[in-house]
Amino acid sequence: MMRVIQVPVGVSQSISIEMTQPGAVSSALGGSVTISCRTSQDVYTWSSNHNLAWYQQRDGETPKLLIYTAGTRVSGIPSRFTGSGSNSAFTLTISGVQAEDAAVYYCQSVHWPGSSQGGWKLLVRTGGDVRPTLTVLPPSSEELQQGKATLMCLANKGFPSDWSLSWKVDGSSSSSSSSSSWEQSRSPGVLEKDGRYSWSSTLRLPADQWRKVGSVTCEATQGSQTPVSETLRRDQCSQS
To answer: Where is this chain compositionally biased, Low complexity type (predicted)?
Structure first.
């Protein structure tokens, strides 16, 4: 399933232009979804062209223009994106939705005087919530010789992207450890072509403390989902 979640993006205008947005929309991967944009006043027109544009912004990227003058597709934009509408009511339709279409979509209108902008986040789902597969990697022998130990937890092919990763050392949460020299960090989720996410978390500690550890566990949690965990025993590592 796929859902569209409204995300307010902000308004820049010199007159009051109210933009309304749709409620939740759902579609299967490969289906069709329509995002509506309605302004409280007609948009500016010239030569019968309505000055309204649609933009797409994927995570970590700059906005990309998809459609201008309400229905003109920019060169190179796939034909599955179509825009239509006039006066104060416009739509962007995506037919045959692909995983890479997950993004924030902006509707930008120009009025005289003033302009208005609103945005909606499109979350593409290939199915229900998917539990990621976890892999825990031990520190390298080279790093241990330098007095440091870094463990990495790889979480692959999960959905949605808000699974939390945490560490347990010998059964206790690493965040509750009395050692201030332990550090945790997590990388941003990377959207794969199949619509699922992969990300990672690292746990850093001094090598002498790592040598006292019996086991470390990486755990992934998300809402009411059953947690996923993977445990690495230090005595199973070739270099401990």
So the answer is: 173-187
Higher pLDDT, 22 or 66: 66
Q: Are residues 71 and 94 in the same domain?
A: yes
Please choose, from the candidates 63, 67, 58, the residue with its C-alpha nearest in 3D space to the C-alpha of residue 98.
Answer: 58
pTM, rounded to two decimals: 0.52
Chain centre to alpha carbon of residue 2: 14
Chain position carrying tokens 């022998």: 141
Q: Max CA-CA distance within the chain?
A: 76
Q: Residue 191 is part of which domain span?
A: 133-236
Q: Which of 53, 88, 123 represents a domain boundary (last residue)?
A: 123
Q: How wide is the angle at C-alpha 102 spanned by C-alphas 97 and 108, nearest 5°? A: 100
d(Cα 21, Cα 119) in Å, to the nearest integer? Answer: 9
Note the pLDDT of residue 43. Answer: 80
For residue range 85-96, list pLDDT tens digits in order: 988 888 889 998
